[in-house]
Amino acid sequence: MGLSESVRSWLVNHGIIWDSPTVRSNAHLPEYFVLGISLCLFAGWKKALCAGFLIGIIDEMIKIPLPTRHFDLIDLFKDFIGVALGVLIVVILRKITNKQ
After folding, report:
1. 12 occurs within a structural domain
2. Which of 1, 20, 48, 83 could be joined to 40 by an S-S link, Cβ 3.0–4.6 Å?
3. What is the tens place of the pLDDT at every residue in 34-50?
4. How many folded domains does the chain comprise?
5. Is residue 49 part of a domain?
6. Which of 22, 39, 17 has its CA nearest to residue 78?
7. So what's the pLDDT on residue 42?
8. Does any domain span residue 1?
9. pLDDT tens-digit map of 69-80
10. What sign does the CA torsion over 52, 30, 5, 19 have?
11. Domain span at residue 39?
């Protein structure tokens, strides 16, 4: 048994399944946090916020035709909060490093 199968087996045995709704739902914030940092580094904070929000909307809209998924405003909120926190971190770090 390989490492990934061992980890997956341990997760299943402890009630954590990779594809569970809880894991998917809680993954929104850290995923979009990284997206916010990336967008801000390459596009500036205003464009990063707009692009992150649009990506979140598109991500939720893709779920509409899927029978086991749905458009979720709470997930969209988590997406935007993640992007906003990522952007905020970059802006704060830029201000700190520019003062020194």
Report:
1. no
2. 48
3. 999 999 999 999 999 99
4. 1
5. yes
6. 22
7. 94
8. no
9. 778 888 899 999
10. negative
11. 21-99
